[in-house]
């Protein structure tokens, strides 16, 4: 059985830990094959925010990885069939380049291919606050069919740690690709959440 290929682009925005979690969660799905591209700034944020082993960890988990400058790699072509692509985190530079069709590196080219082939493209854009240019690029990409998903935490599942927040965001992003697997993210279930809240209150009493 051929696997579902998912391309993961890591650019130089804050939130490098999200990239690691997305790759880890994708690796847990046996039917999925991951194709990783990390920008030069992405390497820097991984080092700065996660640590010296982060890049090696990512590369070790991914099924295949590519140099960001390798514009002739498989993921640069529309003939390379994929289930979708997640750019995590997505810098405002990469966002702008994708919006403008400036496919001068492999992350932007692969994203461009996903748009032209009408495939799923999830952009975990990270910057705050946003100026009008950022917002216009997000609007343009939404109009082109991309899904703009800033990593804004949810609190309904009552996260107890940063790891839980990261895990939930990674699961939501993967869910957006629409792989034929059960949802990874905790669903909104008021009854279950209320019971959890009661259990936690009792636990802390
Ligand atoms: C530690 C660090 C954090 C950064 N955080 C962000 C960010 O949250 N959002 C953003 O758009 N750029 C951020 N930048 C700037 C980008 O890395 C820079 O614009 C870079 O050119 C992006 O290149 P890339 O899109 O090819 O990865 C950050 C840079 C560093 C060093």
TrEMBL record:
Binding site for FMN: 12-14, 39, 91-94, 126
SUPFAM superfamilies: Homo-oligomeric flavin-containing Cys decarboxylases, HFCD
Molecular function via GO: carboxy-lyase activity; flavin prenyltransferase activity
UniProt KW keywords: Flavoprotein, FMN, Prenyltransferase, Transferase
Catalysed reactions listed for this entry: dimethylallyl phosphate + FMNH2 = prenylated FMNH2 + phosphate
Domain of life: Bacteria
Class of this enzyme: transferase
InterPro entries cross-referenced by the UniProt entry: Flavin_trans-like (IPR036551), Flavoprotein (IPR003382), UbiX-like (IPR004507)
Domain Flavoprotein: 5-169
E.C. numbers: 2.5.1.129
Binding site for dimethylallyl phosphate: 156, 172
Family: Belongs to the UbiX/PAD1 family.
Its job: Flavin prenyltransferase that catalyzes the synthesis of the prenylated FMN cofactor (prenyl-FMN) for 4-hydroxy-3-polyprenylbenzoic acid decarboxylase UbiD. The prenyltransferase is metal-independent and links a dimethylallyl moiety from dimethylallyl monophosphate (DMAP) to the flavin N5 and C6 atoms of FMN.
PANTHER family hit by this protein: FLAVIN PRENYLTRANSFERASE, FLAVIN PRENYLTRANSFERASE PAD1, MITOCHONDRIAL
Protein name: Flavin prenyltransferase UbiX
Species of origin: Sinorhizobium glycinis
Organism taxonomic ancestry: Bacteria, Pseudomonadati, Pseudomonadota, Alphaproteobacteria, Hyphomicrobiales
